[in-house]
């Protein structure tokens, strides 16, 4: 059976990074939901290693070999996990710069799990007002559960409404795995049928 390709994007800047840690936990949880029924190939893309290449691409319009390889991996992925630190109530500039150089059609119909890290839970809504609209604009299929991890979430049990971090990770990973399992491995995005405007007008006439 052809393995499904799961790609995680980590926009963490520090080393070690809580953003990378969250990406790894989401990736492992998604793999646990899919295997052994569906084999999975996992790749984690560290954007901090591509920061200069991304900046050069924005200026010149040409990706370096390393950046081109990362963009190809995102395009060919059967499922995507996107994790960014939250700065000033939104995703990081590095994360947005990478998304800006991804082809506009690369994420069409692709299952995406969005996640973020931050120092305080007050920034958790950035997932809904910033990240979810971004991927909706790119026509991705964003799973219902977004995962935010504040400093106090690591090792906590959460509350009755949201559950602990481990519970949220498991729920989001299950949703992503369910979408990925329904796709044939390496499936290209579905092409939308374009109906000429004249034909649409003719259909409205009595």
From TrEMBL:
InterPro entries: CE1759_FMN_reduct, Flavoprotein-like_sf, FMN_Rdtase-like_dom, NAD(P)H-dep_FMN_reductase. One of its GO terms (molecular function) is oxidoreductase activity. It comes from the Bacteria. The keyword Ribonucleoprotein does not apply. Gene3D superfamilies: 3.40.50.360. The keyword Zinc-finger does not apply. Keywords: Flavoprotein, FMN, Oxidoreductase. Residues 5-154 form the NADPH-dependent FMN reductase-like domain. Signal peptide: none annotated. Pfam families: FMN_red. PANTHER family: FMN REDUCTASE (NADPH). This is Oxidoreductase. It comes from Sphaerisporangium melleum.
């Amino acid at each position: 059976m052809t393995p499904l390709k799961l790609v995680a994007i980590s926009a963490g800047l520090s080393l070690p990074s809580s953003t990378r840690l969250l990406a790894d936990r989401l990736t492992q949880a998604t793999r646990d939901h899919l295997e052994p029924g569906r084999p999975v190939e996992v790749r984690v893309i560290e954007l901090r290693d591509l920061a200069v290449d991304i900046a050069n691409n924005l200026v010149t319009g040409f990706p370096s070999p390393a950046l081109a390889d990362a963009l190809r991996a995102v395009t060919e992925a059967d499922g995507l996990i996107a994790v960014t630190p939250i700065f000033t109530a939104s995703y990081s500039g590095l994360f947005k710069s990478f998304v800006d150089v991804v082809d506009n059609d690369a994420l069409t119909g692709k299952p995406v799990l969005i996640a973020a890290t931050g120092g305080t839970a007050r920034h958790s809504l950035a997932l809904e007002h910033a990240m979810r609209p971004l991927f909706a604009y790119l026509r991705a299929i964003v799973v219902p559960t977004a995962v935010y991890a504040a400093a106090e979430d690591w090792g906590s049990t959460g509350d009755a409404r949201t559950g602990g971090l481990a519970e949220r990770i498991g729920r989001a990973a299950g949703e992503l795995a369910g979408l990925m399992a329904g796709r044939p491995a390496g499936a290209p995005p579905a092409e939308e049928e374009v109906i000429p405007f004249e034909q649409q007008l003719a259909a409205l006439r009595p």
